[in-house]
Write a structure and sequence with these properties.
With 245 residues, the chain is α+β, with helices and mostly antiparallel strands. The chain has three domains: 58 residues, RNA-binding S4 domain (Structural Genomics Hypothetical 15.5 Kd Protein In mrcA-pckA Intergenic Region, Chain A), CATH 3.10.290; 84 residues, Alpha-Beta Plaits (2-Layer Sandwich), CATH 3.30.70; 74 residues, 2-Layer Sandwich (Pseudouridine synthase), CATH 3.30.2350.10. It contains six helices and 18 strands. The strands form five sheets. Strands 6, 9, 10, 11, 14, 15, 16, 17 and 18 form a nine-stranded mixed beta sheet that branches. A three-stranded antiparallel beta sheet has the order 3-2-5. A two-stranded antiparallel ribbon has the order 1-4. Strand 16 and strand 17 form a beta hairpin.
């Protein structure tokens, strides 16, 4: 008979309570109980439907984690520095903080600890990039079950035919795998709007190459329900408490 129990940390991540790493940290601190009050231990396996309770200290910790929205310029990499290019996180400074940020919070030195991009934005692309300390946000945006829409404005060269649009919407493959359906709208002869629910490396540029179009500019303007809006290029702001992806 197969044991259907799974690690408690995995169940917590699947339910969106926190990331697995955060779950293990909370369990180590004695901040997690299950099955009506049992104190959890690292590695404990439970039924997928078990009741889970977080200590108020864990919820307080969750309320303190930061998510930052950056309008990434071209020539910055999303993650680690490479080939002499600077990582986007170097733009998270007091001088680049959006003056109209509604949170009124001010950046502290320790705020950058554990801050990591939730998804990529190519070095030659610009627009909305999310950096977060929150495992729940990261899973929502880039987890294996993510269905979050990402919207892009794309400048192109070449003739946009109806056949090309149909192929872009559904019918192309990359790396030997069929792409998910996409929403593609032609704004004018030189600009398209892409709405995707996946994010393969350089996906839009490669899709356009397959239908004879060349991308000359790409800007991400929305992730889920969060828009880039009036955030200036190179500046950043905090995700508001009332905002959800």
């Amino acid at each position: 008979m197969t044991d259907e129990k799974v690690r408690l940390s995995k169940v917590m991540a699947q339910r969106g309570i926190c990331s697995r790493r955060e779950a293990d940290a909370y369990i180590e601190k004695g901040w997690v109980r299950y099955d009506g009050g049992k104190l959890a231990e690292l590695g404990v396996r439970v039924d997928p439907g078990t009741d889970i309770e977080l200590d108020p200290q864990a919820r307080k910790r969750q309320a303190e984690v930061l998510t930052i929205l950056l309008n990434k310029p071209v020539a910055y990499v999303s993650g680690q520095a490479e080939k002499g290019y600077r990582p986007a996180i170097t733009l998270i400074t007091p001088s680049n903080h959006y003056a109209r940020d509604r949170t009124r919070r001010r950046i502290q030195r320790d705020d950058l600890k554990g801050l990591a991009p939730a998804g990529r934005l190519d070095i030659d692309s610009q627009g909305l990039l999310v950096l977060t300390q929150d495992g729940r946000v990261a899973r929502t945006l880039v987890g294996p079950d993510s269905r979050i829409e990402k919207e892009y404005l794309v400048r192109i060269q070449g003739q946009v035919t109806e056949l090309a649009l149909e192929k872009l919407r559904h019918g192309l493959s990359l790396d030997g795998k069929a792409l998910k359906p996409a929403k593609i709208t032609q704004i004018n002869p030189e600009q398209l709007k892409f709405v995707l629910t996946e994010g393969k490396k350089r996906q839009i540029r490669r899709m356009c190459d397959l239908v004879g179009l060349k991308v000359t500019g790409l800007k991400r303007v929305r992730i889920g329900r969060v828009r880039l809006g009036s955030l200036p290029e190179g500046e950043w702001r905090y995700l508001g408490k009332d905002e959800r992806f």
